[in-house]
Specification:
- The structure holds 2 protein chains of 2 kinds.
- By secondary structure, chain A is mainly alpha-helical.
- Helix content of chain A is about 60%, strand content about 0%.
- Chain A has a single domain, classed as ACP-like (Non-ribosomal Peptide Synthetase Peptidyl Carrier Protein, Chain A).
- Chain A contains 4 helices and no strands.
- In chain A, about 25% of the residues are buried.
- In chain B, about 45% of the residues lie in helices and about 15% in strands.
- In chain B, the strands form 3 sheets. In chain B, strands 10, 11, 12, 13, 14, 15, 16, 17 and 18 form a 9-stranded mixed sheet that branches.
- Classes of the chains: A mainly alpha, B alpha/beta.
- At the A-B interface, helix 1, helix 2 and helix 3 of A face helix 3 and helix 11 of B.
Chain lengths: ~80, ~650
């Protein structure tokens, strides 16, 4: 999936998770930029992305994702593999 | 959760509910609650579940915050305070629990105790959980806290000693909560998350990780049984679904979640059905379609020889397997009915003549075959059996019929039966409609009792005059103070009965036992039999003396099974209660009628029995009544009193 497709999917998932009507993630969005995106909802977000895309991130990757772009690239690597 | 239908347009529906709630218009809010409840009846993914839960919390918050009057919560909803005491992350479980409870019209207020502070939360009167005073407490622990320190070469007796020490400590926590708040305890048993160590030999080593967890679960089951603690059997669930469906090593390492987020919908469902069972909200009656549900083919077209049923080919055996399972459900007390679009004679023919039928005509308490819409027929079945529509489950292979019934009668459960009959049993069993937290002698006799009820109703229709009918029943009542053997059934009746229930006060087995052994209280039980059979213990009454009311016994609780409505048992029972109260030196009986959505049938009971109104209805509609015993003239009934057995 392209960067844009994944960003849209991720934005919708995070909006549903946090109870926002609309939310726009960019490649350089960091967790701290999004209100209420705490460590608990981060794990929830990762779990929801994994369920929706049918992939599984390595636990070291989950800890090291610096921004949304890193998650997008991580998902693309897994989808390609 | 394949028994739940897919939501057609979840986002759209969710938006509709949110708007109705936000509008705050009182006439829109009850509708919003019904829509919210209807949405919970669908198959929801994790994200959908979280969104529905957020809306639910919002709606519940409005009630408690007083934005919307609490009377706008639709009839039939009830609330329950649930505490979670966990040694692993448990916050993420609450949405799953709340939504699955909403599916059963239960509004759960959840409180999660401090992470890893199970003992303190249970035992310290100042803890958050104790301040919350839960009605139900769920304990979620992990096997490694119990058996992690046991060395690999420990003998069986060393293993047992360590396990029993751990469980004794746990028992103290259960008891502390139960004694402080009368809390019902639910204990999750232990997931076996350990990998094999020896492999196949693990079972032969007393202290292999696998053997330890198995032993721990076994001892826990025994202890829970003797303590009256309800087990949440995750061990069975993970054996059925695979450990991976419940536990994810990644989530454990990242967030100490023993239950993975993917399993949250299923976890909530498992727990909520137990909460519902504890509240007497489990379904009672399975209504069966016939053609292509109990057998393959159409009896009216294919005839007795043409339908697919029995040994010899796979589909015929699949229908047999369903019948075998349904027969077992009847054996454990689920009432069976038939609702089929058929000529009555055709519909009955296989039950009477097909050699492979496992279900027989006498297993069916109410048999309806005609060409009318099913919704009306289901209402007729509920009426005939004297149970609520919310006690019915309809098993029907036809998607059009299912949709029609869901639309017309949303309170009837209609599982989304798969197309393949091989999967029927798993679908019905997986849905857990008939979840129980115990089994009584009455459960085991129920199916024959309901067949008797159907026969009695037929006799009633045949007899023109109702009093002739009652006289012809040859009824005998056996009544008196409840003994130890009666108390489990008395408690079950108190917790399950919604219609003939004057106060709808629920009492646990512990508190009923406490009343029974209290000198100043009286627990009475009433059994009824007639020429059609024995109905068993069908009514119970708790009389208590309230402080400051000398000479008066108050009817704290009076319940009666709907099976025996209209048989004058309430009159005969009052005669017994008055005699017992007089023997205790009481001069007066008092009682209250507290109205609920379901107990309208006893609204005028006290007046009919000769009580005087003691006060006008209060704001909630509660009325108070009293009866001077000196002037009491026993009611004349068609019921003879049998000597106590």
């Amino acid at each position: 999936m392209t960067d844009q497709e994944l960003l849209e999917r991720f934005s919708r998932i995070l909006a549903d998770l946090l109870g926002e009507d609309h939310l726009e993630l960019a490649m350089n969005t960091r967790r701290a930029d999004v209100p209420n995106w705490d460590s608990f909802s981060y794990i929830n977000f990762i779990a929801a992305v994994e369920m929706e895309l049918g992939i599984r991130f390595g636990i070291a990757d989950v800890e090291s994702f610096e921004d949304v772009g890193a998650i997008v690239r991580g998902a693309q690597r897994l989808q390609a593999g | 959760m394949q028994w739940l239908p897919e939501a057609a347009d979840f986002r759209q529906a969710l938006r509709g509910v949110r708007q109705a709630l936000d509008s705050g218009a009182p006439d829109e809010v009850p509708d919003a609650w019904q829509q919210l409840q209807a949405l919970s009846q669908h198959r929801l993914g994790y994200l959908e579940l979280l969104q529905l839960d957020r809306l639910l919390c919002n709606a519940v918050g409005r009630i408690s915050a007083g934005t919307v009057p609490s009377s706008s919560v639709p009839a039939g909803f009830s609330t329950l305070r649930l505490a979670l005491l966990a040694s692993c992350t448990a916050d993420h479980l609450l949405p799953g629990i709340r939504v699955a409870a909403l599916r059963r019209r239960l509004l759960v207020q959840g409180h999660v105790g401090q992470f890893g502070q199970v003992r303190q939360e249970a035992r310290d009167p100042r803890s958050g959980v104790r301040q919350f005073a839960p009605q139900v407490a769920l304990f979620c622990l992990q096997a490694r806290e119990a058996v992690g320190a046991i060395d690999l070469d420990a003998t069986q007796s060393q293993v047992d000693e360590a396990i029993d020490r751990f469980l004794e400590d746990l028992r103290q926590s259960w008891r502390a909560l139960r004694e402080a708040h009368g809390t019902s305890i639910v204990q999750q048993n232990f997931l076996d998350t350990e990998p094999p160590l020896f492999g196949n030999f693990d079972a032969g080593m007393p202290a292999s990780p696998r053997a330890l967890v198995r032993r721990l679960n076994q001892r826990l089951t025994e202890l829970a049984g003797s303590e009256g603690v309800t087990l949440l059997d995750l061990d069975a669930a993970s054996a059925r679904d695979g450990l991976g469906a419940w536990f994810d090593t990644g989530r454990w390492l990242q967030a100490r979640m023993e239950i993975s987020p993917a399993a949250v919908p299923a976890y909530g469902e498992q727990l909520a059905r137990m909460l519902a069972a504890l509240r007497g909200l489990s379904r009672k009656c399975l209504v069966l379609d016939l053609d292509n549900t109990l057998w393959g083919g159409v009896i009216g077209d294919d005839g007795l020889e043409g339908i697919v049923l029995g040994q010899g080919h796979a589909a015929g055996e699949a229908y047999l397997a369903l019948q075998r399972y349904v027969k077992l459900l009847a054996r454990r007390g689920v009432i069976l009915a038939v609702c089929s679009k058929n000529e009555p004679a055709n519909a009955e023919q296989p039950f009477l003549q097909h050699p492979d039928m496992i279900l027989k005509r006498e297993d069916i308490a109410c048999f309806v075959a005609n060409w009318e819409p099913k919704a009306g027929n289901l209402q007729r079945i509920a009426q005939e059996l004297n149970i609520g529509l919310d006690s019915l489950v309809l098993l029907d292979d036809n998607p059009v019929e299912r949709a029609h019934v869901r639309q017309e009668l949303p309170m009837v459960a209609v599982p989304e039966l798969p197309a393949d009959p091989a999967l029927y049993v798993n679908c019905l069993a997986g849905a857990g409609y008939f979840e129980a937290v115990g089994l009584t002698a009455e459960d085991l006799q129920r199916s024959s009792q309901y067949a008797e009820l159907a026969a009695r109703n037929a006799a009633l229709r045949a007899s023109v005059d109702a009093s002739d009918f009652l006289a012809g029943l040859d009824m005998r009542m056996q009544a008196g103070p409840a003994g130890a053997v009666d108390l489990p059934r008395v408690a079950q009746l108190i917790n399950k009965t919604n219609q003939f229930n004057l106060t709808t006060r629920r009492h646990t087995l512990e508190s009923v036992s406490a009343f029974a052994s209290d000198e100043s209280a009286l627990v009475l039980q009433f059994r009824l039999r007639d020429r059609f059979g024995d109905d068993g213990l069908v009514s119970a009454m708790i009389l208590v003396s309230r402080s400051g009311e000398a000479g008066t016994l108050d009817i704290d609780t009076w319940v009666m099974s709907c099976r025996v409505f209209g048989r004058q048992l309430e009159h005969a029972a009052l005669n017994v209660a008055v005699a017992a109260a007089k023997a205790r030196g009481a001069r007066r009986l008092s009682g209250s009628y507290i109205p609920t959505a379901k107990n309208g049938v006893v609204k005028d009971l006290f007046a009919e029995l000769g009580f005087e109104a003691a006060s006008p209805p209060d704001a909630a509609g509660t009325t108070r009544w009293s009866l001077e015993l000196a002037h009491y003239r026993p009611h004349i009934t068609q019921i003879a009193e049998a000597a106590a057995s």
